[in-house]
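The freezer alarm interrupted the setup, so I double-checked each line after restarting. Inputs confirmed:
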Amino acid sequence: MQRIGVFVCWCGSNIAGTVDVHAVAEALKLEPGVVFSTDYQYMCSQAGQNIIKEAIAEHKLTGIVVCSCSPRMHEATFRKTAAAAGLNPYMVEIANIREQCSWVHKDMPIGTEKAIILGKAAIAKVNLNAPLTPGESPVTKRALVIGGGIAGIQTALDIADAGFPVDIVEKKPTIGGKMAQLDKTFPTLDCAACILTPKMVDVAQHDKIRIFSYSEVTEVKGFVGNFDVKIKKHARYVKEDVCTGCGDCVSKCPMKKVPNEFNLGMDNRHAIYIPFAQAVPKVATIDPNACNMIKNGKCGLCAKVCTAGAIDYTQKDEFIEEKYGAIVVATGYNHISMDKFDEFAYNQSKDVITSLEFERLTNAAGPTAGKLLRPSDGVHPHTIVFVQCVGSRCDACAEKGKEYCSKICCMYTAKHAMLTRDKYPDTDVYVFYIDVRTPGKNFDEFYRRAVEEYGVHYIKGMVGKVVPEGNKLKVQASDLLSNKQLHIDADLVVLAAAIEPDKSARPLATMLTASMDTNDFFTEAHPKLRPVESPTAGVFLSGACQGPKDIPETVSQAGAAASKVIGLLAKDKLTGNPCIAHSDEMMCNGCSSCERVCPYGAITYVDKEFRMPDRTTAIRRVASVNPAVCQGCGACTVACPSGAMDLKGFATSQIIAEVDAICK
Amino acid sequence: MQMNEHKPLIVAFCCNWCSYAGADLAGNNRLNYPAEVKIIRVPCSCRVNPMFILRAFQRGADGVIICGCHPGDCHYTSGNYYTRRRMAMLFSMLDYLGIEKERTRVEWVSAAEGAKFAATMNDFVATVTALGENKRLEDLRCKK
Amino acid sequence: MQKITKNQLLDKAAELLDNGTVTAVLGWQKGEFDYDVTPALFENKEELFANFVWNDFCGANFSKYLIKHTRKVEGKILVFLKPCDTYSFNQLLTEHRFDREKVYAVGIPCEGMADIDKVKAIVGDGISSIDCGEKIKVTTIYADAAVEIDGKDVLEGRCESCKSKKHVAYDELLGEEGDVLDSNRFDEVARLEAMTPDERFAFWQNELSRCIRCNACRDVCPACTCEKCVFGNPKSGVENKSPANSFEEKMFHIIRAFHVAGRCTDCGECSRVCPQNIPLHLLNRKFIKDMNECYGEYQAGAEVGSRAPLVNYTTEDLEPGEVFDRRDTDA
Amino acid sequence: MSHNSNLQDDIIRMSGVNPRKCMRCGKCSATCPAYDEMEYHPHQFVNMVENGDIEPLLKSESLYRCLSCFACIERCPRSVEPAKLVEAVRLAVIRQQGANRMKPEDVAAIADDETPQQLLVSAFRKYSK
Amino acid sequence: MRKCSLDKLQSVFAAVNEKMPIYLPANGSDGKAVYTKWAEGVELSDSLNTVRSPKDFFFPQTENMMEFKTEGKTIEIIDVRDEKEDFVIFGVRACDVKSFEILDRVFLTDPVDSFYASRREHGIIVAMACTKPSETCFCQTFGIDATEPMGDVSAWKTDKEIFFKANTEKGEAFMKAIEALTEDADTKEVEAQKEATKKILKKLPLAELDTKAFGGGKTSEFFNHPAWAELSESCLGCGTCTFVCPTCQCYDIKDFNTGKGVIRFRCWDSCMYSDFTRMAHGNNRNSQKERFRQRFMHKLVYYPENNEGIFGCVGCGRCLSKCPISMNIVKVMKKIGGETK
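Predicted 3D structure, all chains:
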């Protein structure tokens, strides 16, 4: 049995004006377990807190109930008071007789009666309270960044600059991501490579950063502060630490007809290749599907020309296991496939291209060395049609495309249109749009310049179909404002394809037990207040893996994610919330219901040997809650059919006791 | 009127982050609602076990209302989505057993919706008052 | 009525025992009166050939026994599974309740099981023998001649609205595979839904008032596999042993139905074993029907590892207040 | 603008189309092969139904210019299905008039050797009472 | 012996009901017989017997024993026992009549259970002879004559008439209440019916079952019998057998906190349950085998040991028809008794 003290606060006249505080204190004195009951003008004042501290000492109280304002206001205060007096802070319960009683009721007898009932409920609860101690877990002071695009690069740099080691895992042979493929960036039109490559070099040279390129994460175990991650480093058949990136091997390689993924297949590369001049790490990679030596042992030219002796045809995939305190997901995006959009003839004509392909076509390092030429015949196009919202903003049941707005297309299309008109004033540029969305700093000004200064034809309406005919593309579209159907003979059609999360994100989310929305974007812990944290503690989000984003937004989110990681890694120990779920192993069936509703992946299962009631032993699967990960929502307690799962601080027995006390 | 003589007893389960704060805001703004409403604080609406609801009715409650964050705003990201399914199913079952469906309710009240909290409670108390005493889920032993 | 014969099952069991695939056989054991069949674990061929039975009264669903037996028996257990049993089998695997490796499941077709009460309603009491062939031949001590009954006329209630003749799990199938059926199993629920609340209340008050809390429904239920049931656990806050009044009758059955909601495969064992003939399956089916209608078709146990509606959600789910509107507009 | 909500409800119900899903991209009109024949174009159709502006549609020959090729349905990013609306308005016309739009004696004038029999039969089914 | 025509049966019930409530087996909504308080229109069921035994009348499933009222920190104890009124249970079969004797030996021996005693004292049992026993019947095994049921009044029902014979003083009171509706009768028809029924009883499948192997003093012989494991193998551990059994008399005493006080009540318990007689140290019968064994050993060995050889079973057959897995006392007797013979 507890020894409970009850402290009724007047809150000046805030409570005492509508509630007879003496009567409340007197009535609650009679409740089971109550050994002391008093009232005072301001319990939260120093004098009031002293009354509590003295009573705890004098009456050897094991629990206290403060009838006062909302626990959201002073629960922390009174917990500290209790702790100062040597009482476990979780032995404190608050009966909210101000916000939920004196302030909403006018009649003194009614208010008093309700205050007594609320007090009884708190007493009933505290009778079943148990001292709680927050759990502690150590923090591994190393971060993992998954994805080496601008998001991953920025996050890694920021964390590393704060002094914590960071590893970047990138599945491609080089970091850089999508931004490395871009030509210019809106709305300032500075060159992407000029601003990105210095950062890539910074990453490469940073003593706190390791890059695992051509690698992927295959296994994640553990929890916040203590992740165990397995990384698979694909064999690139070139010793990374020996290769100097001179490129001699590349120029000698006889296999020259491998579609170049960096230029989106618009030109070819060799079987041994360096994706682009500023690649980081700048080392060659052999494509095992193209290399004759690896496929059938015939060739070996590259090994012969490599003066450094970096070529190793026998190299195997390698696994690296490392511990991390925090994980940042920066897996980025891709354009959706255009296969389902027959109307735009993407698969029929080489001259119907996506915007990213257009970027490569205008990039000085691209397949045409920056000259805008048609992919089909290398002729300069005179009429270019840009189509917006291809696959974005589609109805969910349409089964092609995405429901959301891809966010970046309006701006990059304006950029493309403007740059085209700037470089080639003889070109007619049409942009078919549904809405032009420009909410960003200098964005609308940028778009207006495209229209006003560069004479881009913006037409409200959609392209209905594109039909290749001879060397032209017959574009049929509607102009909604002039209520006409247009027929344009275009030379080039550029589709602003919707973007979607990278395909690697879904299996990664499963490994991380991080939640995703139906579009496979990672979900945030809170859409407004915790935008760069995943609900899974210790997992953070950076860049387009969380939702479509442009570069400035990505970089700012990357910085935010980094600061969250730094905040976490700066701690030596993590202190948890003690009000968490726990499972009674003797009752748990291991049925997995709780695991399925846990938003944090805090529940795992272990096979344990038990002595059964019939004196046999059996190995049973039982749930185990990770106290460092559980946030204490209680979803599992209701999903659990056997009642094995309970929540400390809000235990089933406590809530039932409150119900009973209220319904007396 | 006979009906009005019975003061109903209402148990309101409020999630700590939104609805309990919404109730506090109703207090801050001195928005009155009947004292028959007694609030129990839970971390999330998904902590509310159907057993608690039945227990309340057994012990003499005439109505039980569960308040949580608006869908999409759950502090724990998904708790209230589970609440929504569980309570939809439970309420449908109670109705199937012939128990007045108006006695149970789920309402989403954000921390900013003090006025909605008070209005909801006023409405719920009025609805339950009109139904009269809970007879179909009562335990006479508790009414002595 | 059954198309597959006892000998086919015996031969299969003998073969698997002989070749060492299994060390025990979970099957039906004959009783006193040809209809009182008991589930039994046969550990050798002699016992098997002496006591194994397969007839129109082999309704018992063995899935739940696998939890107990796989913990105890060394080696594999042969279990015979009728189509409806395979759903429970899968559901238990979904919940990790036994080790699949320890079981050799033989699917057997089922033509529906007979209800002895319905047989007695036709032939009267005092049954002295029942011969289950194409027809069910019954003799009683009160009549000289045997009465022939068409099995279809005395089907168990659950078999009248059989949901599936398809086995969703087995290592080996005897006989022919059937199909998932377009059953009328929700008709009775719909009939109740169409009643007024007062009528429904009266209906359930009458049905549940017969409950004697023998726990047969719970103890036979393949979804009720808790190590300790909340109703037997003083710490749960709802423990009780007897239906002291109508509240506790309702409490037990509502909570039980809620706990198995999304996990119940609608095998019908609860109603089969209820000594008081309470149509308990109508509670479980209500949940199934509601979940199907609100959250999309879901059949517990149709596949291992599936996620039940109550441990799942979408952001577009209907509101608790709308479950009623849904029905009002449907009507 | 005339607002005929009864008719609007009927058309929405008959077609099963929710015109509010339209985001006014005009792809239906962009894709329509009969665009130039029409007084009201597919996207206007959707818009007018949404606004309850049905009367002009009932009277418009545009109704019968739609080939029911379903290109608009196929291409609409929002699954609005304009062709179904057109069909529903056609039905509304038939229902409203309550009179024969096609009589046997008219057939000779319309039909020629190349007119398929099936067309006549289905035309009768649709346009006569 | 008195008799009356079956047409007058309702009048007989009405006449009794004027003096005291009368309960009789009537068909419930599920078509099964259930003891029902007679009121206009309640008809005697044709069923052989009820699903629930009539032990409820004397030993109800739940019964409040006392109440504690709490006020602040004071507790008041309230005696809830009240004076019972007389009542009639009509149509009790011979097996169930015998079950009362078995219960009496438990509840009425010192210390007397006042709750049971008070009900028992006020109950008048009108027993009804069987004419169409079921294959599950084996009352003969325990020496019960289904054609000559005991009770305060014995009754026989033929196609047209019903015969009554008082056996006790309470029975005489019942006879008096219906005197005006009955007339004197000879025993010829009753004897004929008995003869016919006895022939049928001999034909019952379980007619040969006997108790020779069992009785007091056999604990060591049967306790470690190897067959218990096999017999209990499939037992679900539910309480169906116990709760439909007319002689099972175990109960649990529990407290129910009403919020304003505590109701101390008892309710049926079953030795098949894992928490049966659970004590501070835990359970004394940990496996289902032990619990299963307890139930049958009690009926076949322990009870007769303490009660002059009377067995704790009356052969009503309820458990035979209601056990979800069809395991029952007959199978146990045959398996265990048969082998040791």
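Quick read of the result. Chain B has five helices and four strands.
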